[in-house]
Amino acid sequence: MTTPDESVHARLDRLRRDRGLLTPAELLDLAEHGVTVLDPFSVIVSRRVKIGPDNVLHPGVVVECDERSRCAIGPGNVLYGGTRISATDGGSITVGARSLIGDGGTRIVAGAHESIDIGDEVRLMDGVEVTGDSLLGSGSQILGRISAHSVELGAGRPHTFPDPDGRGGVIKGYGRATGALVRSGDVLWNIGHEIGHTTTERQRVYHPEAPRLAPEPSLERLTAEHAGAVLAFEQENRDFFRYSVPDRGDEYFTPDGFAERHRALLAEQADGRCHFHVLVNGWGRIVGRVNLVDIAGGSAEIGYRIAEADSQQGLGRAAVEEVCRLAAGSYGLSGLTAVSALNNEASRALLARTGFTEVGERRVDGETVMAYRRAL
């Protein structure tokens, strides 16, 4: 109840305190900790919110957190007007450092038992809504009127980093994205429809002339931990690979079908019948595979494939040469064989440059191919 001599400011302070909110004077006092509140009368912040230093809160920002919930904002973020961050009924929201949130409006809402974790140098712009259990890795972005529910964006460098392969994952456009997984260096476009597990594209597709700044790729022996990255590699390059090798079929690309196949490969490797390898770039992304299969009598067949976005860079040749060294030194093999389609000039040239010689044509799965051999 308002008393006759209660001032407007006193009334406002009482109303905010009753609702567990900071008063305008308390918001201004945050400046002592490096927090800039540009308009303390239009900014609403719950007392339970933990705010780090060097944040900037533009007019109209709302950050709510009830007594059952958790909300923490790290240092150096900019919250633009129209940003609403709300954790209620036991929800949890964590924002890292140096992110740009809300230019054009953004809602981040976590309800009962939901957790939203936002990394460092994230950018959320132009009407984004984030709900559910969501993980936005450092450097990731959601741009446009996207309703993102329970999404995961891979961590990487921020949007200003010149090499798009090293940036965090991106969703952009408008519409609803539910359960989307976007890995580092990838972008998922959505134009007015529901996204489930839609195939992503490499950000480099839209920046073909951008520099490549990653350290040299390394060859790793296949493990169970590579499963998700291998599936992403195969999904992203399915159309590209079908021009040179038979398609693996739809069942292979389902979560259950791929998991079964991956377990089978690891079992063959454990038995010594095959040796499987992945080529991992400096950002931790699989860009190629080189395998030794059908080991018998000191010999094995070599097969390889390089991602479309990373082709014509000499990666295939370097990976094949490295596996040839492993075959002789670590695996005790004395020779390798290979086959290539007659019209696959790039593959045949690579084999010739890595010491393989033609031994004649043969029929494989109804197709005439050229067979090769290399002594180790």
The rounded distance between the terminal residues' Cα atoms is 91 Å
CATH third-level topology of the largest domain: UDP N-Acetylglucosamine Acyltransferase, domain 1
Largest sheet: 14 strands, mixed
CATH top-level class of the largest domain: Mainly Beta
The whole-number mean of residue pLDDT values reads 91
Tally of strands: 28
Strand proportion:
35-45%
- How many discrete structural domains? 2
Structural class, by secondary structure, is: alpha/beta
Assembly state of the chains shown: single chain
Please provide a written account of the structure.
With 376 residues, this protein is of the alpha/beta class. It has two domains: 8-206, UDP N-Acetylglucosamine Acyltransferase, domain 1 (3 Solenoid), CATH 2.160.10; 218-375, Aminopeptidase (3-Layer(aba) Sandwich). It has seven helices and 28 strands. Strands 1, 2, 4, 5, 7, 8, 10, 11, 13, 14, 16, 18, 20 and 21 form a 14-stranded mixed β-sheet that branches. Strands 3-6-9-12-15-17-19 form a seven-stranded parallel β-sheet, with no helix packed on it. The chain has a seven-stranded mixed β-sheet with strand order 22-23-24-25-26-28-27, with helices on both faces.
Structural topology:
Layout: H1 8-18, H2 24-29, E1 36-37, E2 44-45, E3 50-51, E4 56-57, E5 62-65, E6 70-73, E7 78-79, E8 83-87, E9 92-95, E10 100-103, E11 106-110, E12 115-118, E13 123-125, E14 128-131, E15 134-136, E16 141-149, E17 152-153, E18 170-178, E19 181-182, E20 186-195, E21 201-202, E22 218-221, H3 227-236, H4 238-241, H5 255-270, E23 275-280, E24 286-296, E25 299-306, H6 315-329, E26 335-341, H7 345-353, E27 357-364, E28 367-375
Parallel strand pairs: 1-4, 2-5, 3-6, 4-7, 5-8, 6-9, 7-10, 8-11, 9-12, 10-13, 11-14, 12-15, 13-16, 14-16, 15-17, 16-18, 17-19, 18-20, 25-26
Antiparallel strand pairs: 20-21, 22-23, 23-24, 24-25, 26-28, 27-28
